[in-house]
Design goal:
By secondary structure, the protein is of the alpha/beta class. It has three domains: about 120 residues, Rossmann fold; about 110 residues, Rossmann fold (3-Layer(aba) Sandwich), CATH 3.40.50.1980; about 160 residues, Rossmann fold. About 45% of the residues lie in helices and about 15% in strands. The strands form three sheets. The protein has a six-stranded parallel beta sheet with strand order 1-12-11-10-13-14, sandwiched between helices. A four-stranded parallel beta sheet has the order 3-2-4-5, sandwiched between helices. A four-stranded parallel beta sheet has the order 7-6-8-9, with helices on both faces. Helix 13 runs parallel beside helix 18. It starts with a strand and ends in an 8-residue tail after the last helix. The protein binds iron/sulfur cluster (SF4). Iron/sulfur cluster (SF4) binds next to helix 2.
């Protein structure tokens, strides 16, 4: 089966199933120590993205803006950009500023590398200035995320003495996922540079006093040493499918071997991740992780009768959808609709490869989808449940089926930043939630309200 474009070329997007690229870049810059995200464009871009991130992560998120006016749109925004960089340097004293250019600056063809070089030459000793072009019409928030990761690596990774550490490029996951990945890598005795690491900066502890920036993030020193790592683990099938990633750049320019893997969501993909850690470390999987795996398999047996044959619609970020499809396939749930707002040729083959038990006549895969096209497909396919971010709520409500909230954004519940998707532990959490959600629905709609199911 081929992926179907959700809307023919030339038609409008109706309720986008994606966010704009600068948002992904801002998340990456938020995960670097002492780095301030900065949007070169109109004020509204920064306000919208800040609002969007704050209501998911429930943390203060500072994003500076060059605040284009009508005049800047015609004559260029260099003056604003340089004034903004000077202000941010004075106010925050950062070691780095991540500048993402938004639709407006890209459309007028602003020569941002030249402006940044001029500013750096006039302000020696100032923060490192990283530029990532991120117009929303050239990709989604996940594209902006991966592009920013590559730009950060290109900017900082310098020739260095080879060392035993590994690089881990996790993709756009929750802070809880990042914490668990670090825990897993550490369990094998491996030193790791995680990029980005917003596990604290976007899910921090309460402050005793006001701080200008959130403590935490990948240090600039660690970024510089990425070129000497023994390998780079790159998670996610869609960035891994092209050679334009940070891991590919490190391999080409610094001979750091690249290990592309799927997101470790579900049993099989986590097994692959753990196997890679075993190979890299030369150590066997620790007993407590093996027991976690054993409990997960045992729970699959316990809960199988409640979920087998159920139909699921899932949509959101491409790699999370691929990982969740794999998990659902393992537990006997049939993903009948797998959709993403991103346009990736690798998406459909990766979904199909994740499904051993799918009926191709009863499976719809949509790329470049909006919520209107997803809803139209779901009305035909009649799923028993929906897995998506909070944008899936109207559809689940219309269909009268439960919504299992996953990924990003989660705007109608708290704790989106603490959702765990990865590892055996993440699969356990998702499986228990899925089974219990279906049981709850059965119980609530039963005439007698059995308490023994
Ligand atoms: S779509 Fe473009 S103009 Fe609109 S908020 Fe995103 S970056 Fe800014």
């Amino acid at each position: 089966m081929k992926a179907q474009p959700a809307t023919p070329p030339g038609t409008v997007t109706r309720n986008a199933c994606k966010v704009c690229a600068p948002l992904g870049a801002c998340v990456v810059f938020s995960g670097i120590e002492d780095c301030v995200p900065f949007l070169h464009g109109s004020q509204g871009c920064a306000t919208y993205i800040r609002r969007y991130l704050i209501s998911h992560f429930r943390e203060p998120v500072d994003i500076a803006s060059s605040s284009f006016s009508e005049e800047d749109t015609i004559f260029g925004g260099a003056r604003n950009l340089r004034a903004g960089l000077a202000n941010v340097t004075t106010q925050y004293g950062p070691r780095a500023i991540g500048v993402a250019t938004t639709c407006l600056a890209e459309t007028i063809g602003e020569d941002v590398p030249r402006i940044l070089a001029g500013h750096a030459a006039d302000s020696p000793g100032g923060p490192a200035l990283i530029h990532v072009p991120a117009p929303a019409y050239a990709g989604t928030h996940t594209d902006g995320f991966h592009r920013a990761v590559r730009r950060v690596v290109e900017h900082f990774a310098a020739p260095c003495t080879p060392h035993a550490g590994v690089n881990l490029l996790p993709g756009f996951l929750s802070p809880e996922d990042l914490r668990h990945l670090k825990e897993l890598v550490a369990a094998f005795g491996l030193a790791c540079t995680l990029l980005p690491d917003y596990s604290d900066t976007l899910d921090g502890a309460a402050w005793a006093e006001y701080l200008r920036g959130q403590p935490g993030g990948t240090s600039l020193e660690a970024l510089q040493r990425m070129s000497g790592a023994r390998s780079t683990l790159e998670l996610g099938r869609t960035p891994g499918a092209d050679r334009d990633t940070a891991a590919a750049w490190l391999e080409t320019h610094h001979q750091v071997p690249r290990i592309p893997l799927g997101l470790p969501v579900g049993l099989r993909e986590t097994d692959a991740f753990i196997a890679a850690l075993e190979t890299l470390s030369g150590a066997a999987c620790p007993a407590d992780i093996q027991r976690e795996r054993g409990r997960l398999v045992d729970s699959f047996v316990d809960g199988h009768k409640y979920v087998f044959g159920r139909r699921a619609a899932l949509f959101g970020d491409p790699d999370l959808v691929i990982g969740l499809a794999s998990l659902l396939d393992e537990i006997g749930v049939r993903p009948v609709l797998c959709a993403t707002g991103a346009r990736h040729q690798a998406f459909a083959p990766a979904v199909q490869a994740a499904l051993d038990h799918a009926d191709p006549t009863d499976l719809r895969i949509l790329t470049g989808a909006d919520h209107a096209s997803i809803s139209e497909a779901a009305r035909e396919l009649r799923p028993d449940l929906v897995l998506a971010g909070s944008k899936g709520y109207p559809l689940a409500r219309e269909l009268g089926v439960p919504l299992i909230r996953v990924g990003f954004p989660i705007h109608d519940r708290i704790g989106g930043q603490r959702l765990l998707h990865v590892g055996y532990r993440g699969a356990q959490r998702l499986f228990d939630q899925l089974v219990n959600t279906l049981l709850e629905r059965r119980q609530d709609t039963s005439e007698t309200g059995y308490s023994y199911l």
